[in-house]
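This week, think about what follows.
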Amino acid sequence: MFLTWTLSLLLLAGQPQARPSELAHTYSIVAYDEQTGEVGGAVQSHWFSVGSIVVWAQGGVGAVATQSFVNVDYGPLGLRAMASGERPGPALERLTQADPGRDVRQVAFVDVSGRVAAHTGQKCIRHHCDVQGDGFSVQANMMLKSTVCTAMAEAFRSARGSLARRLMAALQAAEAEGGDIRGRQSAALKVVSAAKPEQPWEGVMVDIRVDDHQRPLQELERLLTVQEAYNDMNAGDLAIEHGQMEQALQHYARAEEKLPGRLEPRYWHAVQLVSVGRLQEALPIFKEIFAQDGNWLELTRRLAEVDLLPQDPEVLKAIEEQAP
């Protein structure tokens, strides 16, 4: 009882706890996007489900990567410290000083102001490194080559597009340099909003993981494309709720472009075409979809029942006639 009480007091005081470590030797990046204010992190390792322990992020607060002989506590404690207004540097210094295993830890913080801090213990397995730049920190250990961090930093600085895509570019640069000396197994990427959400489940822009795969980065990139497409579809749904039908149509069209051949985005694109009075454009899409899977025809009937399609018998008949 005394031991449990003492550990609880230490946790409440914001001290990392001594506990069995997971051997997530790896490369990672935490970063801030000065254009959007988003923050996030990404990681790849030859370890199962690395995303479940290494990358932590909270909207309106910051992101943390904790790796090497992982002390998971740095994730929640680091976010708690930054949420309270503590700068990444002093917060990380305080936490590492309280950690008896700091010599084998590798940790990085970034906050929503773009301030960064990193710690690489002197007993991390070589090749190890960390490099900081404007709004980002890259870190790696147990690498095949000593050039991984430099390659990651250069790739992140030169990449264009969303923060998620730039994080992805940094991971790919690390792998191109040889990556983890053991190979590859899992990867993860998380991006959160600049503003602190009202609810804890809000503010997550991207949250994808590949837990066990022969080519985790290729799979992570594929999932990122799917995530981006479904973000467009979600935006389309929201536009419908607000009565913004043309905007919804644009979102569904973008999702369809990102996922060619997928029935889901094509179907909702067709539904929205009907909703804005462009039935003739929608009919060939319905015909193609119904030929592949008749269940979509039944779904169409059900949409009309709840006013997600016009309750016009002629419109519904024209759509039904597209079935084989």
About this structure: The first strand starts at residue 22 and ends at 24. The radius of gyration is 24 Å.
